Amino acid sequence: METPYGTVEPIVGKLANRKVVFMSRHGRDHAIPPHLVNYRANIWALRKLGVRKILATAAVGSLSSSFRLGDLVLLDQFLDFTKSRPQTFYEGGQQGVLHVDMTEPYCTAVRQVILDASEQLGFALKNGACYVCTEGPRFETPAEIQMFQRLGADLVGMTSVPEVVLARELGMCYASIGLVTNEAAGIAKHLLSHAEVMESMKKLGEKVAQLIQVTIQLWTPDQNCLCASANVEVGKF
Ligand code: HPA
Question: Could you tell me where the beta strands, DSSP code E, fall in the chain?
Answer without folding.
Answer: 2-3, 6-7, 11-15, 18-22, 53-62, 72-74, 77-81, 125-127, 130-134, 155-157, 173-183
